[in-house]
Amino acid sequence: MAISIENPNPKLVAKRFVLPVLAAWLINTGTWMIVFAASQPILSGLLNISNWYAEHFGSGDLQEESWNFPLITREIAEGSIPIMLGLLLGFWVLHRKRQKSKAPAPSGG
């Protein structure tokens, strides 16, 4: 049953778009988990560079930023899980959509 533009049935719209939206949400969540995990070593590196400039130009030291490498790798691995689940779900939805479009039309007769 096709969804009409003039009078969309909310149940059909939800049934059609809930899995792609869930896949996009999983990919987005995993990406942000990785971004937040990677921000600690990036900020630590930038702070080390600014400390180097501060030492050479006589401004004093800035606060040292520390981070734990095993913790960061664990957080990045945890962020990759929702990304993989989202990709698998998205590819499954795409495969199912292609299979439905390839299905032969029933012949009335």
Q: What fraction of residues sit in β-strands?
A: under 5%
- Mind describing the biggest β-sheet? none
Average the pLDDT over all residues and give the rounded result.
82
Outline, from the CA principal axes?
elongated
Output the radius of gyration: 25 Å
Question: Terminal Cα separation, in Å?
Answer: 20 Å
Helix content: over 70%
Q: How many helical elements?
A: 2
Please mark out the parts with pLDDT under 50 across 5 or more consecutive residues, or reply none: none
Secondary-structure class:
mainly alpha
Helix and strand run: HH
Number of strands: 0
Protein model, in words:
- With 109 residues, the protein is mainly alpha-helical.
- The protein has a domain at 29-97.
- It has two helices and no strands.
